[in-house]
Amino acid sequence: MIKESVYFSFLNALLISDKHRCAAIIHEQLENGINIREIYINIFQRAMHRIGKMWEQGKISIIEEHVATEIVSWLIDSISPGEPITAAGQSAVITCVDKEFHSLGARIVSHIFEINGWRTEYLGANTPSRKLNNFLKRKNPDVLAISFTFYMNYIRLLQLLQVISEQFPQLPVIYGGQACTAELVTRIAADYPMAIYINSIEDLELFLRSFTAKPGA
Question: Which structural domain range is residue 132 located in?
């Protein structure tokens, strides 16, 4: 279990852009036997949620938010190979909405899929809908995951879900991100029943356990 003091030490180091202190804290946790899932949930997820709120409240600048995002992204890439991954039959495509440039959430989602034994195709930020459709036709994944963090792109998210529902009606879609309001989630649930809102890493792992538990999966 990660102590609160560890989380706050990481958050404080992140806020002053101390990349090496952040890395030292994370690697100390790994050496103490803390697994990557717990680090994602109780350090990365919590810290970035707090950073996002501070930016919204004007307590930090957009530059500070971007630097924090890049540090966490760098840490994810540095520690993820330490977790054994065994590719199972299930596959997922993970992407961001077109004109969406915040890809950290999608990257974390990709690693969580892999930790749970899935094969993934991580497309990153700003994926044009037409390119995504062609890619889905070639890859025929079991699940599509969409990250959505900038609210001004909500029309693009709805347009993408409409296209997916028409061209891939049997494809389960999960989506999430800081821009998902209660009103938008309710609208999507009514219009696109194949789309499932994922609010956290815990929600994602519950979905994955439920999905793999299905008969014939």
Answer: 91-212
